[in-house]
């Protein structure tokens, strides 16, 4: 049973943070020094992703970890200690509302020991996120390289891209499509074909926030440029058909 594959390292949460506040911090980060004058948790996973054949031929299940804002004892040490559904999931996304959420090393290593891929999150939201979208698109290739470098340094397996601040135009929507395409290929080049990028169902083709809750003409473009579409939570069985 995968649930017994690893006893998590129940360490005290480090004082250093393990997330980035902005696109500017993402552009500044380096694997050698992190961010100048900032204490970051730079610990790397030492546990490779174990091959799992437990669900071969079945649909894949992603568990989105979204608990108490992340990066606290309830979300990490306590939840990890009682989590016993490793055999029922294939992928886990560590989610928080920081601009760039890097999974804690304990989550990465527990996922890998149990044959589960572990993803981080890049998110923009609210009014402040509109300027962050602009910064992202103006530095698209640099951000691709930085996110791929984070993936390689920390040793996790992919990204969920969640854009919940509106874009300025349909042109910026197309630029975001190009960014996600380049991020997907960039992560695979840097970390191997097992690296994945998922896109959240939050934008229509005009760049406005519009959750579709199903695969349709407004969001199908993402399936051509990344590894999957994370539908909004209001999906229904008829919509999935």
Secondary structure layout plus pairing:
Layout: E1 19-20, H1 23-28, E2 62-65, H2 74-82, E3 91-94, E4 100-101, H3 105-113, E5 117-125, H4 128-138, H5 140-154, E6 158-164, H6 170-191, E7 196-200, E8 228-230, H7 237-240
Parallel strand pairs: 2-3, 3-5, 5-6, 6-7, 7-8
Antiparallel strand pairs: 1-4, 4-5
Helix pairs in contact: 5-6
Provide a short characterization of the protein structure:
This protein is an alpha/beta fold and 241 residues long. Helix content is 32%, strand content 15%.
Structure characterization notes:
- The protein is of the alpha/beta class.
- It is built from seven helices and eight strands, in the order E-H-E-H-E-E-H-E-H-H-E-H-E-E-H.
- Strands 1, 2, 3, 4, 5, 6, 7 and 8 form an eight-stranded mixed sheet that branches.
- Strand 6, helix 6 (170-191) and strand 7 form a beta-alpha-beta unit.
- The longest helix is centred in the last third of the chain and has 22 residues, at 170-191.
- The chain is globular and about 45 Å long.
- The two termini are 33 Å apart.
Radius of gyration: 17 Å
Unreliable stretches covering 5 or more consecutive residues: 1-14
The oligomeric status of these chains comes to single chain
Percentage of helical residues?
A: 25-40%
**Main structural class:** alpha/beta
Give the mean pLDDT: 91
Tell me about the largest β-sheet.
Answer: 8 strands, mixed
Strand content: 5-15%
Count of β-strands = 8
Helix segment tally: 7
Give the overall silhouette: globular
Beginning-to-end CA distance, first to last residue: 33 Å
């Amino acid at each position: 049973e995968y649930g017994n594959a690893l006893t998590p390292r129940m360490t005290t949460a480090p004082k250093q943070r393990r997330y980035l506040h902005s696109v500017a911090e993402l552009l500044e980060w380096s694997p050698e020094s992190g961010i100048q004058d900032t204490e970051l948790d730079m610990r790397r996973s030492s546990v490779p992703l174990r091959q799992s054949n437990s669900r071969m031929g079945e649909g894949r299940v992603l568990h989105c970890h979204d608990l108490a804002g992340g990066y606290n004892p309830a979300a990490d040490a306590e939840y990890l200690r009682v989590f016993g559904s490793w055999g029922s999931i294939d992928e886990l996304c560590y989610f928080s509302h920081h601009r760039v959420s890097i999974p804690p090393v304990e989550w990465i290593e527990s996922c890998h020991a149990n044959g589960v891929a572990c993803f981080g999150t890049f998110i923009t939201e609210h009014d402040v996120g509109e300027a962050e979208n602009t910064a992202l698109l103006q530095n698209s290739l640099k951000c691709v390289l930085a996110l791929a470098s984070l993936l390689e340094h920390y040793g996790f397996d992919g990204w969920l891209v969640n854009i919940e601040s509106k874009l300025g135009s349909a042109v910026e929507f197309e630029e975001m499509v190009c960014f996600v395409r380049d991020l997907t290929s960039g992560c695979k080049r840097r970390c191997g074909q097992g690296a994945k990028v998922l896109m959240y169902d939050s934008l229509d083709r005009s760049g406005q926030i519009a959750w579709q809750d199903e695969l349709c003409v407004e969001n199908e473009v993402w399936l051509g440029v990344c590894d999957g579409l994370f539908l909004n939570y209001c999906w229904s069985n008829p919509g999935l058909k």
